[in-house]
Amino acid sequence: MLVIAVVLVAITLAWPVPRLLPRLTFLRHVPGPALLLWQAVSLAALIAGLAAAPLAMLDAARTGDDVPTPTDHVGTLVIGLSVTGVLVVRLLLQAHHTGTALRHARREHRDLVDLLGEGVAGRARDVRVLPHPTPTAYCVPGRRARVVLTDSTLSSLPQLELDAVLAHERAHLRFRHDLVLEFFTVMHSAVPPWLRSPGGLTEVSLLIEVLADHVALRTATAKSLGGALVTLAGGAHPSATMGAGGLALVRLRLLGDRRRRPLLTALTLTAAVLVLALPLTLIALVIAGH
């Protein structure tokens, strides 16, 4: 029965839960803990999914409460580990393909920005300005990170709003939000299509943007950041980069309510710990023979 519970945990955390969490819109007020909850759900689903086959083989070979001797059940052991091995290889290949594609696209775009863009007097050397009629701002993560603005952004935004946008983009770069999004992208694409939740990936992207907004508000006002979001709302950015104007309407609503929520933070973090502990506890119980 415990092995079945492990399988059910894997399916539940991989399928209905990522479809349910985006509906809990109050979690957007605590983006950091909410992202930890999303990560806990993904990791717990992965752990349970990888452990299911070996645990099923262990349970089938067990006689009594003792752990079976591996040499007495070579065939069973090979079957269980083979299933897990296939899943691990699929995950690693997807991580390699996703990471390679993203880094290649960012490297090419960074080289293009360095070739066509210009620096800004009084700004850091990693800021580049491109000629374009639409106000746009985004960052290109990586070793040689860039913050990219269009010249219409400079002409459209007052200084305080421009500073807020730059703080937002630098938050992405400083805290490597691209790696967080890459992790979820890999997990999303590694599961079968019928299990995927496109809404889940969109929600994670929103939480990352809101988290960068929170960091920007340490040095900028909600009014200046909100004004910048309105101006940049129509801008687009390359898929491998992270833009300041994305999901502007929802972020504007969240900027209007900056109350602290210590209870929600504590509950969300507790939920993350419990979700991650669930498969680990079940696995330990199965191995112990309970």
TrEMBL record:
Similarity comment: Belongs to the peptidase M48 family.
Keyword Protease assigned: yes
Residue intervals of the Peptidase M48 domain: 130-181
Single GO term (MF): metalloendopeptidase activity
Repeat among keywords: no
Organism superkingdom: Bacteria
Transmembrane regions listed in the UniProt entry: 38-58, 263-288
Protein name: Peptidase M48 domain-containing protein
GO biological process: proteolysis
Entry keyword set: Hydrolase, Membrane, Metal-binding, Metalloprotease, Protease, Transmembrane, Transmembrane helix, Zinc
Required cofactor names: Zn(2+)
Cofactor: how and how many bound: Binds 1 zinc ion per subunit.
